[in-house]
Here is the input.
Amino acid sequence: MRKNFSDLDFLNNLATKEGVVLMYGSGFEAPKGCVRISLANLNKDDYVEIARRLGELLDTYHTQYEQERSLPAAA
Here is the structure.
């Protein structure tokens, strides 16, 4: 997966497919691959929804990974 997708691809897909806009964590001294979620301005239920949508996108990535893994190796 890391060969085919960048960390920013994940954030872009999260925004376009799930309607959730998060910040790339490295801009806030976080390790590579982290995202930042503001905890200052949303209701508790909004964060539950963000987590659900993050999970959905991660499930999509996992499904794609499993499908690619099951393909026969190229000759």
